Amino acid sequence: HNSQILPINSVVTLRNHGNDMYDRVLGEIIFNNIRINERMVRNGLAEVYDYTGKGQCTDYDKQYEQAVKEKLNTHSDSKFMKPKEFREFMKTSTTAKTTRTTKSTTKKAN
């Protein structure tokens, strides 16, 4: 559990890696020389985000692959969607719903 990895009110170090294109702060959380981000990826509790677009997450990629192989946490759920997949799903679902609503409203008006 994350509470065991990072107890409440822990003092941590944040290695700031700047901001991404959406101005979100990117960084690594370090506690007792443990990279919490990497630990969360390894335990299937987080996704790898290559904010550089250059494939510079190789340490995290190895941890991610291991978590997938072992079907840990989110990787054990066949319905789990990566954030990017979820956004695409929601976009197409919203578009489909809007199209259906528009068609049925049009039919009622006739």
Structure description:
The chain has 110 residues and is an alpha+beta fold. Helices cover 45% and strands 15% of the residues. It has a 3-stranded antiparallel beta sheet with strand order 1-2-3. Strand 2 and strand 3 (34-35) form a beta hairpin. Helix 2 (36-42) runs parallel beside helix 3. The N and C termini lie far apart (58 Å). The model has no long low-confidence stretch (mean pLDDT 79).
Summarize the structure.
It contains 4 helices and 3 strands. With 110 residues, it is α+β, with helices and mostly antiparallel strands.
Assembly type: single chain
Number of strands: 3
User: How many helical stretches?
Assistant: 4
What structural category do the secondary elements indicate?
A: alpha+beta
Spatial order of the strands forming the largest sheet:
1-2-3
Taken in chain order, the helices and strands follow as HEEEHHH
Q: Tell me the major beta sheet.
A: 3 strands, antiparallel
Question: Residue-averaged pLDDT, rounded?
Answer: 79
Helix content class: 40-55%
Distance, first to last CA: 58 Å
Low-pLDDT residue spans: none
Shape: globular
Rg calculated over all Cα atoms = 20 Å
Q: Strand content of the residues, in percent?
A: 5-15%
Features:
110 residues; alpha+beta; 3-stranded antiparallel sheet
Topology, pairings included?
Elements: H1 2-5, E1 13-19, E2 25-31, E3 34-35, H2 36-42, H3 58-69, H4 83-109
Antiparallel strand pairs: 1-2, 2-3
